[in-house]
Design a protein that fits this description.
Elements lengths: L1 H22 L1 H13 L13 H4 L2 E7 L2 E8 L5 E5 L13 H5 L4 E5 L14 H15 L3 E5 L1 H13 L6 E5 L5 H12 L3 H15 L8 H6 L4 E7 L7 H10 L3 E6 L9 H12 L3
Parallel strand pairs: 3-4, 3-5, 5-6, 6-7, 7-8
Antiparallel strand pairs: 1-2, 2-4
Helix pairs in contact: 1-2, 2-8, 5-6
Length: 282
């Protein structure tokens, strides 16, 4: 029943946008973009933070018209920065935190644009990367860990900024090709060519590169840091092949195939491997 209602809702929205495009094309494309770029869950309330975040030291940063939130679990001088994915927030790392804390490291988690306690309604990878850069400059992490779109943002960040303080990056269940994500959205709403073209043009202009080049696979090929990519073969949100694409071009990478974890990738054995990858000396 829920699937049928969801199908009817998405198709109804698509029909409305398609009809609107013949009368007010600019308004129709703006609406299509707004629906695509605005997360519908993942926000937090300061008055009702998850317990794991209450145990951290919080800090709010301002950048242009935006503000974003960080959470710190203090330890030694080795710093790990955690980057969550779409419609999530910093609390998603609760299961991983005990494994990272065993090392004695300082752990920093960030809320992305329009997520958690960070401001805004619009999410984009370039904006998220700008937030990450401010956090990296402030906290000087050696390691980045990203889940889902957060993992792809880590790849984008390092490929653009080439920060020599970053030594290792862990990417969990992350997509490679942005164009696939956008095309899936267009197909979900059955948007017409006029709208789909307007969306592609908007993102090409926004990213300043062709959509087919906005690829985790391409970003990874530019990295000199050590990497670990883990992806589950049962992931129905981001297909397993996307993780393989990312790993295929990374010069110094370990690829871990998991089964039965789905998209969340929460697993004690996997987190042990992540911890060993980061903290064990070779």
């Amino acid at each position: 029943m829920k699937k049928a209602l969801y199908f009817l809702l998405t198709k109804s929205i698509g029909i409305y946008i398609n009809l609107l495009s013949f009368v007010f094309p600019k308004k129709a494309s703006q609406l299509a973009y707004a629906i695509f770029s605005e997360p519908r869950s993942g926000k937090l309330s300061k008055n009702n933070l998850p317990k794991i975040l209450q145990e951290s030291k919080t800090e709010t940063f301002r950048y242009e018209e935006h503000q974003f939130q960080t959470y710190t679990w203090e330890g030694n001088d080795i710093v790990v920065l955690l980057v969550h994915g779409w419609e999530s927030n910093a609390s998603r790392w609760e299961n991983l935190l005990p494994y990272l804390k065993k090392s004695g490291s300082t752990i920093i988690a960030i809320d992305g644009p329009a997520h958690g306690l960070s401001s805004g309604k619009e999410f984009s990878i370039p904006k998220y990367a700008e937030f990450i850069h401010i956090a990296v400059e402030k906290f000087q992490p050696k390691y980045l860990i990203g889940h889902s779109i957060g993992g792809k943002t880590c790849l984008y960040y390092q490929s653009v900024y080439q920060n020599d303080k970053i030594e290792k990056i862990v990417v969990l269940g992350s997509p490679s090709d942005f164009k696939i994500i956008l095309q899936n959205y267009i197909a979900l709403l059955s948007l017409n060519y006029k709208i789909s073209k307007a969306l592609e043009d908007h993102y090409s202009e926004h990213f300043k590169i062709k959509l087919e080049h906005f690829s985790g696979q391409l970003f990874a090929s530019k990295l000199n840091v050590k990497g670990l990519v883990a992806h589950d073969i049962d992931d129905t949100v981001v297909l397993f092949e996307e993780g393989k694409k990312i790993a295929s071009t990374w010069k110094n990478v370990v690829f871990i195939e998991t089964k039965g974890l789905g998209h969340s990738m929460h697993d004690d054995e996997l987190y042990e491997k992540v911890s060993r990858f980061l903290f064990e000396t070779e």
